[in-house]
Amino acid sequence: MTSNRRGRIRVILVATAATLALLTCATDLLVEHRTEERVVAQASRRLKPQGPVHADLTSPLAGLRTLGGEVGDVEVSAKGVHRQHAVLDVTARLKDVTTNGDSAGGTGTATLGYDQVTRRLGALGKGLTAGGQNGDLVLTGSVGRLGLPVTVRAILSTTAHAFTITPTTVSVLGRSVAIDDLAGLPATSGLRDELRPRTVAVTELPHGVALTSAHAAGDGLVLGFSIAAGPTPSAGGAAV
């Protein structure tokens, strides 16, 4: 075989391989796009959010995986989801999702804006506005009969179906005092009563979803969830 002929064959092989690679890539992107559209449509029907829904397939060759019944890892986000008289921004990250609606489990977050946190604090938040600093909830405003300006720092803890806001310190007129020490100060017993821990139940969770964490972020109170392996959870607890 002459060198010219061998050279032409190599060129043909390279061109063929490049064409196949391009076709595979195009097919993968097309299938992936259509799969993401289906995920978005299903999430929109289940969650009925006010805002947009986005879905991303994060596994390599995610589109081609669907041809074999596998979707891979999926991240779904939705803004403006109504739950428990609140509006949340929700994100779920699921591992090894299949086209039958099963997954290997995952995690999720729900973010509640501080304006809504302030409204839901009840007696604890009377006269105070919620915010966040270094993961702790910070309440600022005025309390008591004298309307003293205060800053209250609170820690957050969780159980599987509730989170608790526990005030730890209060700063009044430049002096920071532990909540437990308020009992020994004159005219502060009423303030201590107002700053008792408050527990907020998190209900209507789908089957297999449990609350695992809570922290105060820059844009709101962020609740973290674990998602058990099995049917992908939906708003009503059924498989997506």
TrEMBL record:
Q: Which domain of life is it from?
A: Bacteria
Recorded protein name is DUF2993 domain-containing protein
Q: What is the lineage of its organism?
A: Bacteria, Bacillati, Actinomycetota, Actinomycetes, Kitasatosporales
